[in-house]
Write a structure and sequence with these properties.
With 123 residues, the protein is α+β, with helices and mostly antiparallel strands. The protein has a single domain, classed as SH3 type barrels (Roll). The chain is 20% helix and 37% strand. A six-stranded antiparallel beta sheet has the order 4-5-3-2-1-6. The protein starts with a strand and ends in an 11-residue tail after the last helix.
Length: 123
Amino acid sequence: MNKWDVVVLSYPFTDLSATKVRPALIISPDSYNRTSQDAVFVLITTNTSRRGPFDLLVQTSHPEFFATGLRFDSAVRIDKIFTLSNKLVVRTIGRFGPQLMKEVEKQLRLFLELPGEQLALKI
């Protein structure tokens, strides 16, 4: 698993009553991913009708869409950041390209209220 991989994982509901298999984007650095049993993810959903202010819409018409492994227009829910065990990853389905990486970083900066050049976390 690497940073910017799109994975399918067994995502727990917030009340831990059940899980649902759904896509997510890995945003934790590769150095962390190699040494930890966890990874940091951002939720991806196909529900694009209920978009939040920090959601990044990834449409099938985007030039990098095919490489993501997603099948439908999707929203990256930037405000849904979570750490989960790597064991919950079912499989890797794709990867974000350079343009989508920049768009995610921009939305993360907006959400975290960081100035443009100060995202030293190398997310």
